[in-house]
Design goal:
Elements (H helix, E strand, L loop, with lengths): L4 H9 L1 H33 L4 H48 L5 H5 L2 H14 L2 H25 L3 H26 L5 H18 L1 H6 L3 H54 L7 H11 L9 H20 L20 E8 L9 E8 L4 E5 L6 H8 L7 E6 L2 E2 L5 H7 E4 L8 E2 H5 L8 H10 L10 E2 L8 H13 L5 E5 L7 H14 L4 E5 L11 E6 L2 E6 L1 H7 L2 H17 L1
Parallel strand pairs: 3-10, 3-11, 6-9, 9-10
Antiparallel strand pairs: 1-2, 1-4, 4-5, 7-8, 11-12
Length: 575
């Protein structure tokens, strides 16, 4: 499968450890066959009362082979597992490197629990590809061929019996297992992903479920998902057990065949009786190396299914730039130009933006207003290359965003989105996300500017900021943006949860800091827009009005009507 090409590439990068593990496994396999063969030969020789030195040599050989087998098996485990863990590390790094630029598109398309199952479970499943899929056939071929050559020196018929056993264990048993495995292909993984999804949603929505009395119903769904997963795992385990049982049956049948064939050859005078126990012990031992072949189809299907899910995750939402590499300068204000931009979310019946054109000059202040769903927030996503327009072009400083390194855009922008994430830690930890050096005095100063003067830098922040109010989250998000040195401000409803007085104080400091920068503000409130150089009014993905505050009020169009409605609502609240 094409999905496993990345695994093959990762294996090639660990070829030294892989070669050493194969060498160690081959020596361990041959040493094991030789050990038990020598033990059988030693037991047979004792019947004939051989000279003492013969017994000493055979006993010493058995001990040396035991030590060799243990040491080589240890080396095989060491190098094979080191190669596996190194490959997993490369795969995780590669997967995350592809995954991160695709957010939030992936989060909008995949449920978070399912995405978590792919990130953790599917990547983890790929560790079996080398150990359980690629490695066993190599060992079977090498050890069996060496054993067959050894056995043929005593009897070609017994050697042919070994070949027959190798073919059955290498092809027939795995084929039977594969036929049954295809019937349950991927169901365990899908059930595990389903359970992970349900658990994640219950944890995220616990309070709402409790308030609306739906917690018991969701708990029942979790129980059903858990039971379904347990049932599928039981069926899969039983299927693997049947494969192992068939392998054990073939092993004993071949050993009995060797015993019967050997007895016949001894009676016919074609084989010395002293070698019979040796050949029987060799047959019992050599099939140990083929035991992994019985479960190989299950692990192969599992690895392919996991690789396919990971590939689907990063390919279905791929929005990478075709020629990245250009950098957006951060030492001066940025110009923004949208030309005929059209964008439609996947699965939506209408476009979020339709043939939109907009020009924002360097150092200017622009506000975008309009009803919910008019496409305002989508503009910021497109500017940050979080999404790719279906048509049209977006230019920053005259350079298409397709030609810019997205990291340079993020570095040049001071961004506050509608929903800002906060990590478990302290206020200081969440303010220093940009990785820049700031003193405690600078941090406390910016907290004062956003009207949080009594907040300590050591105050705890829960996961997702659960212990913070919406207003505190917005002010902390503004503080993070004000600590950055970018010359492009992208603000999406940054003060929607603040009262009017607090909003005026915070925005006053922000406008002062961004006096010579390019500022793009998305808002629903129309108060305070008198300071804007340009106001863009949007509706249903289109620009319907553009101008300064005074110009739009004089036109008495859509913006004027919105302003009149706002004044009326404020008057009613005041009354």
């Amino acid at each position: 499968m094409n999905e496993l090409a990345v695994l093959s590439k990762a294996m090639m990068q660990e070829r030294k450890d892989i070669v050493l593990s194969i060498l160690g496994g081959f020596i361990a396999g041959i040493a094991g066959v030789a050990l038990f063969s020598a033990s059988g030969y030693l037991i047979s020789q004792t019947v004939f009362a051989p000279p003492l030195y013969t017994l000493i040599v055979l006993t010493s050989l058995v001990k040396m082979l035991g030590l060799l087998r243990a040491a080589s098996r240890y080396g095989e485990r060491l190098y094979s597992h080191r190669a596996t863990f190194s490959m997993l590390s490369r795969l995780r790094t590669s997967f995350f490197a592809k995954l991160i630029p695709l957010t939030p598109g992936i989060l909008n398309k995949n449920r978070s629990g399912d995405l978590l199952a792919r990130i953790v479970g599917d990547v983890e499943s790929l560790q079996n590809y080398f150990l359980r899929v690629a490695y066993p056939p190599i060992m079977v071929v090498m050890v069996f061929l060496a054993t067959v050559l050894f056995t043929s020196a005593f009897s070609l018929w017994i050697a042919l019996l070994f070949v027959l056993g190798m073919l059955v264990t290498a092809f027939v048993v795995p084929g039977i297992v594969l036929l049954g495995q295809r019937r349950i292909h991927g169901r365990v993984r899908e059930q595990r992903a389903q359970l992970s999804t349900e658990v994640t949603e219950v944890l995220y929505g616990f309070r709402d479920l409790k308030v609306y009395g739906q917690l018991a119903q969701r708990e029942q769904q979790l129980q059903q998902a858990s039971s379904a997963l347990a049932a599928e795992q039981q069926r899969a385990a039983g299927h693997l057990l049947r494969g192992q049982s068939m392998h054990a049956l073939v092993t004993f049948l071949i050993s009995w065949g060797v015993l019967a064939q050997g007895a016949y050859l001894i009676m016919d005078g074609a084989l010395a009786g002293v070698f019979l126990a040796m050949l029987v012990m060799a047959s019992l031992t050599v099939f140990e190396e083929a035991a992994a072949m019985a479960t190989l189809p299950a692990y192969k299907e599992d690895s392919e299914h996991a690789a396919k899910r990971l590939t689907e995750t990063v390919q279905s939402t791929a929005v990478q730039s075709s020629q990245p590499g250009g950098t957006l300068a951060v030492d001066h204000a940025v110009s923004i130009e949208l030309s005929g931009v059209t964008f439609q979310y996947e699965g939506e019946w209408r476009a979020a933006l339709r043939d939109m054109s907009l020009l924002i000059t360097p150092g200017s202040k622009t506000a975008i207003v309009g009803p919910s769903g008019s496409g305002k927030s989508t503009i910021i996503d497109l500017l940050l290359e979080l999404r790719t327009p279906m048509d049209g072009d977006i230019r920053l400083n005259g350079i298409s965003v397709k030609e810019l390194d997205e990291a340079s855009i993020w570095q040049a922008a001071n961004v506050v989105l509608q929903q800002s994430h906060f990590f478990r830690g302290t206020i200081r930890d969440n303010l220093l996300l940009n990785g820049e050096e700031h003193t405690d005095e600078q941090l406390l100063e910016v907290l004062t500017k956003v009207q949080l003067p009594d907040t300590s830098l050591t105050d705890r922040v829960y996961e997702k900021g659960e212990n913070l109010s919406d207003g505190e989250k917005q002010r902390l998000a503004l503080a993070r943006a004000m600590l950055r040195k970018g010359r492009l401000w992208l603000l999406d409803e940054p003060t929607s949860s603040l009262d009017y007085v607090t909003e005026q104080h915070v925005m006053k400091h922000l406008y002062t800091q961004a006096a010579h920068d390019t500022l793009l503000l998305i808002c629903h409130r129309l108060t305070g827009l008198e300071e804007m150089d340009q106001i863009v009014v949007m509706d249903q993905g289109r620009v319907i009005e553009t101008g300064s505050y005074l110009e739009l009020m004089e036109q008495k169009g859509y913006f004027y009507e919105m302003k009149q409605i706002e004044r009326q609502m404020i008057g009613e609240v005041g009354a």
